[in-house]
Design the sequence.
């Protein structure tokens, strides 16, 4: 292989592909990134049997060919190269990368031991890249981090016609976001569970194109917990794929039963508050400075105002009063400040509405309503138990 490529395009493509490299590869060859040049195109790929990444860029190909080199080393090198064209030559057991006055000799790995990338599943539809990235960010924040509960470490994506619903929960909060998309078929209906980290990395990296194409393959013969449309994409392991701007990635779906989240969303409320999103977030950050780890910030609502407090007894204490609209009987509730701030940071409105049902029950935070009058984003937060 002998190619010449523009430095910035090469560095971006390497960085994108490196995202699928495993932190601790089970076999050494999985730490490699494959470079394949043919015609006027260079294809870079990586795969760890769960996540695959592929990027294509235009190059000047003097001699076609391929090479498998250390992906993380190539990523570090490509970030530090000067702003000059990059030349790559591979022959035998080495690949030589030259950029300006810098030259790197890289050992190559045996390509015959490298696994073939999975095929892209059938296209399910397309969604605006910026809207999708925002929706993923809003929901993935509530995904669990406990690997002993793998079904809670993902984002559930429900497809019903032209509506995508993204949901995640770690049992202490629940995030739900709805957005419109263009399905491949109007009657499309399915539900899948995607690893939150892989989904977040993908959505954030594909915003350079206007739209993201989503492809889907549900497990063959699995009724996907009774979800309509299950199995309509054929057999094989469950997989979701995303593609935009010459980049594509696939991720193996998570298994396990996701909580019946709709039963957790309140249908009636006994009190509501409206407060400036930025003002509340700033106040929570200040008051929480005196809160010990895993202790709460208390919020006391009354007519026209909200009092925030943290710290008790002989500990450091703080309180702050801010303006807030409130409809209902005076109440006091306590939240984990970090979880509350996560919800406020992802609110899509300058005003946040907080709905309350009964003492000790979760509160629902929402932003501006969608086209049908209901909010696109809902963040349900479990309170701390207050001492009487």
Sequence:
């Amino acid at each position: 292989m002998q190619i010449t490529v523009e430095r910035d395009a090469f560095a971006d493509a390497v960085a994108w592909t490196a995202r699928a490299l495993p932190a601790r590869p089970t076999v050494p060859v999985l730490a490699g990134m494959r470079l394949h040049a043919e015609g006027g195109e260079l294809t870079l790929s990586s795969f760890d049997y769960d996540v695959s990444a592929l990027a294509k860029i235009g190059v000047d190909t003097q001699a076609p060919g391929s090479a498998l080199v250390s992906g993380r080393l190539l990523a570090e090198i490509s970030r530090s190269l000067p702003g000059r064209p990059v030349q790559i030559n591979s022959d035998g057991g080495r690949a030589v990368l030259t950029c300006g006055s810098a030259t790197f000799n890289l050992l190559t790995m045996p390509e015959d031991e490298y696994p073939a990338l999975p095929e892209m599943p059938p296209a399910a539809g397309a969604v605006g890249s910026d809207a999708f990235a925002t929706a993923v960010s809003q929901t993935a924040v509530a995904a669990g981090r406990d690997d002993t509960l793998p079904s809670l470490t993902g984002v559930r994506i429900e497809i019903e016609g032209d509506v995508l619903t993204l949901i995640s929960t770690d049992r202490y909060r629940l995030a739900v976001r709805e957005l419109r998309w263009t399905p491949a078929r109007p009657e499309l209906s399915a539900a899948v569970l995607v690893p939150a980290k892989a989904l977040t990395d993908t959505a954030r990296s594909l915003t350079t194109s206007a739209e993201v194409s989503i492809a889907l393959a549900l497990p063959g013969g699995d009724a996907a917990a009774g979800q309509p449309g299950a199995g309509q994409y054929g057999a094989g392991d469950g997989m979701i794929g995303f593609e935009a701007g010459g980049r594509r990635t696939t991720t193996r779906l998570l298994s396990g039963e996701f909580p019946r989240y709709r039963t957790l969303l309140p249908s009636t409320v006994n009190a509501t508050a409206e407060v400036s999103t930025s003002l509340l977030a700033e106040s929570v950050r200040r008051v929480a400075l005196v809160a010990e780890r895993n202790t709460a910030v208390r919020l006391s609502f009354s007519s026209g105002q909200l009092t925030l407090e943290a710290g008790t007894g002989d500990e450091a204490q703080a309180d702050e009063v801010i303006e807030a609209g409130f409809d209902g009987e005076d109440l006091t509730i306590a939240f984990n400040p970090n979880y509350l701030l996560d919800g406020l940071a992802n609110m899509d409105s300058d005003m946040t509405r907080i709905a309350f049902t009964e003492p000790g029950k979760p509160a629902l935070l929402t932003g501006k309503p969608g086209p049908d009058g209901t909010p696109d984003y809902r963040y349900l937060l479990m309170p701390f138990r207050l001492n009487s």
About this structure: The chain has six helices and 27 strands. Confidence is low (pLDDT under 50) at residues 221-236. The longest strand covers residues 51-58.
